[in-house]
Design brief:
The chain is mostly helical. It has helices at residues 2-29, 43-66, 88-96, 105-113, 116-127, 134-164, 171-195, 197-200, 205-217, 223-227, 232-244, 252-257; strands at 70-72, 77-80, 102-104.
């Protein structure tokens, strides 16, 4: 009987690993649009390529807070002060805050990630060859998730098979057979962590090079914030946030408002 569970474990492991390889190969072979390497990134584009829609939301929230258009409380709530918004992203933040003009930061992040303005930003960057197309990200992420599920299936079937074995059976030999599909799935996951990272991240290889250029230039193109009179110190803070996320902020009140504790860790 335990052999049937072993076959199920091998079937799940092989099917998921083959699927992941096929998806990654299709992503590599897909024609990519020519990258616009001459353009400079604005802060929203930098934030999206670095951390996706949630990073864009954090950037907009902090930018509005520094401009006194929004209040960020250390409790993780955001309250809109100026409902007009300076650009489309900020107006989407105001909409995400709801009719009361007040909402928890995580709820605003979630709503803004699904907003048309952020979707248009993602499509514009993908068309420029700087962002990974959403379809590719979704396909690869789904395939990786299936391998994780297969690893869980292997463990479950191994436990069930061990319980069904008679007392005089060689449990060590049975466990060794299940160790093979488990090693396959965990090995593929380990390889995927390093090899398919660009396909599941937000920036394409060309976009990653642009981000490195932004770091080398010590700042992004901030013409939009300069037009609104943003102070140089605020521009530097926003650039750090766009590139490295909330955990890189020096202000503990801002980190608390964005859900980052005293320990440095990623939340986006």
């Amino acid at each position: 009987m335990w052999v049937l569970f072993l076959l199920a474990a091998w079937g799940a492991a092989l099917a998921s690993c083959v699927r992941l390889c096929q998806v990654v190969r299709a992503a590599d072979d897909a024609p990519a649009p020519p990258a616009d390497t001459a353009r400079r990134l604005n802060l929203y584009e930098t934030a999206f390529l670095s951390g996706g829609p949630h990073r864009v939301a954090d950037l907009a929230l902090v930018s509005m807070s520094r401009g006194r258009r929004l209040l960020l409380a250390h409790t993780g709530w955001a309250t809109v002060v100026d409902p007009r918004g300076r650009d489309d992203i900020e107006r989407s933040v105001v909409t995400a805050a709801g009719p009361s003009g007040q909402s928890p930061v995580p709820a605003i992040r979630t709503a803004l990630a699904a907003a048309d303005t952020v979707r248009a930003l993602a499509e514009r960057l993908a068309a420029a060859g700087l962002a990974v197309p959403p379809a590719v990200r979704t396909a690869v992420a789904t395939a990786v998730h299936q391998v994780r599920l297969a690893a869980a299936v292997v463990l479950v079937t191994a436990v069930v098979a061990a319980l069904l074995l008679p007392e005089d059976a060689d449990r060590g030999a049975a466990a060794a057979w299940f160790a093979l599909p488990l090693a396959l799935t965990t090995g593929v996951l380990a390889i995927a962590r390093f090899e398919v990272g660009p396909a599941t991240g937000w920036a394409s290889p060309a976009g990653q090079r642009r981000l490195r250029a932004v770091e080398d230039e010590d700042g992004a193109d901030t013409a939009d914030t300069e037009a609104a009179g943003t102070a140089p110190g605020d521009r530097a803070l926003l650039t750090v946030l766009a590139l490295r996320g909330p955990s890189a902020l020096a202000d503990p009140a801002l980190r608390a408002a964005l859900g980052v504790g005293t320990r440095r860790h990623r939340v986006d």
